[in-house]
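Backbone-to-sequence.
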């Protein structure tokens, strides 16, 4: 039989090669330290990556919200452009500027020959505006209103408010009619 100090054969030899012999505690310390450093670095890298992804998702959300706002604004502006470009709106604005519809057009051919009968654009008759009816001249509202008596005797008017009154009450006058909102203001003309 072989002794423990002799060479191992067979299966024992193969197992012996896998397990190192001798003092192994000194060799394990750097390996354990390396594993802890790698695990700690991996966790820190994972946390940094996670926070970067979260920050990117917040930025993406802000950009999506901004895109939605700008899209809504673009659609509103496009609606305004479409409203202004509508034929009835163009006609209304042209009439406000004093433009009139054109007559029949004439075209020039490549040889300089005039094709068609041109006609002058004729302005349509303006619709008559209602004129305010002549009203009789009334004295200014200030002349009809009583003035306060500076002496403080209680008399506010020289005419009594009712028959037999002694001048202790105020005279009542009808309020001045408000100026008509539809009547145009009169402007002086230069004699044309």
């Amino acid at each position: 039989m072989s002794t423990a100090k002799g060479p191992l054969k067979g299966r024992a030899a193969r197992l012996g090669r896998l397990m190192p012999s001798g003092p192994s505690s000194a060799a394990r310390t750097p390996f354990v330290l390396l594993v802890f450093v790698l695990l700690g670095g991996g966790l820190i890298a994972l946390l940094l990556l996670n926070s970067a992804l979260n920050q990117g998702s917040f930025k993406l959300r802000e950009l999506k919200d901004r895109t939605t706002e700008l899209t809504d604004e673009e659609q509103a502006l496009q609606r305004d452009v479409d409203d202004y470009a509508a034929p009835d709106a163009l006609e209304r604005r042209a009439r406000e500027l004093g433009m009139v519809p054109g007559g029949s057009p004439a075209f020039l051919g490549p040889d300089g020959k005039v094709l068609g009968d041109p006609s002058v654009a004729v302005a349509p008759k303006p619709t008559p505006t209602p004129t305010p009816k002549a009203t009789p001249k009334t004295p200014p509202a200030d002349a009809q209103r009583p003035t306060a008596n500076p002496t403080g005797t209680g008399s506010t008017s020289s005419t009594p408010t009712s028959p037999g009154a002694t001048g202790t009450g105020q005279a009542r006058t009808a309020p001045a009619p408000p100026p008509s909102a539809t009547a145009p203001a009169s402007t002086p003309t230069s004699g044309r």
